[in-house]
């Protein structure tokens, strides 16, 4: 419609003289400006004093203590904010959807509330709803605190896994983007050189190691210096472990304590998966006496070191079959799943008596 109006405007402007010879001023039609929320415009604003509003950009620095009110334009809005506010069911946070906008209020904000705040329009087709990627706005809010240079964490010792095929982050975030931060290894005691390429620092994320290798493993901490403090501040401690196993579906094996058993015996079958340290694995079983015979199943996992500085997670499911009966003979199938896929492995348990009969038959 706008294009048609402009074309019509130009055509009308070709002859600026009326038939009577008088020159007239051409009035061009006004083009309606796109509403906030269109692609390229932020739909996220901060409510200031006396009814004033501030459209937010990439980041914002605020003093702690004063209530934060954000608004996001739209009739159906989704929000994201620092995850611990959900983890601890923080009643300082409230969200309310109004007719034309959604409102987020955070009372008594502190340095721990520093992080990403974002909102987006939710589009629904019947009962199916999805995030509108073109109507999304985000801002990183710093709650600057001269006594808390690092964003506080409930974890005082954190494990960081280093993968050879993707960057790793040491997440020592700060509450003020102007704070100077350095990275240190505990043993041997040294400050790590930050060249901006292999290792760089982002105040909203921490130190980023682009191409992790075994030489980066070890214990680390971050040190922050600010003009508002006479002494530096030390962050949480971080243990960096190098991962040996690549990403993918579970690498599984299965083994029976014995593949030939007699009636009344006890045996177990162990299903083992070697994988990434932070990768959860689920197990399920199919077996001959399923639904008719009681079995005991024990699942567990632990971290192991394999080779020089390589860390792997070993996950196991052990099925124990007691007081063997005829129904227990047959194929045992273990199904292993992670977020990358599924792997099936199987083994067969036979009757010892039948094996002996088969041998006697061959000998005779």
TrEMBL record:
SUPFAM superfamilies the UniProt entry points to: Immunoglobulin
One GO CC annotation: extracellular region
One Pfam family of this chain: I-set
Keywords, alphabetical: Disulfide bond, Glycoprotein, Immunoglobulin domain, Repeat, Secreted, Signal
PROSITE patterns reported for this sequence: IG_LIKE
InterPro entries: Ig-like_dom, Ig-like_dom_sf, Ig-like_fold, Ig_I-set, Ig_sub, Ig_sub2, PDGFRL
Signal peptide start-end: none
Subcellular location: Secreted
Ranges where the Ig-like domain occurs: 29-119, 152-235, 249-350
Primary site of residence: secreted
UniProt-listed SMART domains: IG (SM00409), IGc2 (SM00408)
Quaternary structure annotation from Swiss-Prot or TrEMBL: Forms a complex composed of PDGFRL, TNK2 and GRB2.
Official protein name in the record: Platelet-derived growth factor receptor-like protein
Source organism of this protein record: Cyprinus carpio carpio
């Amino acid at each position: 419609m706008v294009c048609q109006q402009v074309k019509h405007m130009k055509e009308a402007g070709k002859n600026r003289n009326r038939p009577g010879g008088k020159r007239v001023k051409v009035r061009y039609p006004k083009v309606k400006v796109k509403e906030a929320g269109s692609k390229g415009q932020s739909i996220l604003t901060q409510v200031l004093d006396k009814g004033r509003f501030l459209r937010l950009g990439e980041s914002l620095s605020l003093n702690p203590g004063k209530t934060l009110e954000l608004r996001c334009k739209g009739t159906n809005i989704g929000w994201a904010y620092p995850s611990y506010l959900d983890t601890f069911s923080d009643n300082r946070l409230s969200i309310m959807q109004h007719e034309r906008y959604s409102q987020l209020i955070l009372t008594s904000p502190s340095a721990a509330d520093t992080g990403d705040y974002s909102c987006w329009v939710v589009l629904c087709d019947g009962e199916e709803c999805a995030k509108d990627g073109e109507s999304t706005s985000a801002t990183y809010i710093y709650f600057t605190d001269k006594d808390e240079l690092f964003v506080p964490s409930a974890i005082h010792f954190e494990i960081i896994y280093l993968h050879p095929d993707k960057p790793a982050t040491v997440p020592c975030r700060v509450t003020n983007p102007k704070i100077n931060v350095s990275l240190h290894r505990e043993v041997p005691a040294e400050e790590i050189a930050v060249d901006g390429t292999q290792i760089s620092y982002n105040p909203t994320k921490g130190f980023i190691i682009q191409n992790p290798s075994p030489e980066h493993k070890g214990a680390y901490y971050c040190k922050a210096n600010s003009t508002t403090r006479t002494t530096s501040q030390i962050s949480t401690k971080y243990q960096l472990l190098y991962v040996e196993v690549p990403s993918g579906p579970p690498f599984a094996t299965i083994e029976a304590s014995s593949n030939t058993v007699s009636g009344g015996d006890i045996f177990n079958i162990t299903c083992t998966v070697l994988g990434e340290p932070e990768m959860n694995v689920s197990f399920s079983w199919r077996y001959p006496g399923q639904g008719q015979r009681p079995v005991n199943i024990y699942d567990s996992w632990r971290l192991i070191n394999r080779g020089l500085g390589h860390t792997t997670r070993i996950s196991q499911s052990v099925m124990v079959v007691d007081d063997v009966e005829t129904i227990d003979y047959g194929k045992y199938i273990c199904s292993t799943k992670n977020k990358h896929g599924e792997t099936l492995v199987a083994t067969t348990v036979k009757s010892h008596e039948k094996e002996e009969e088969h041998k006697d038959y061959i000998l005779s």
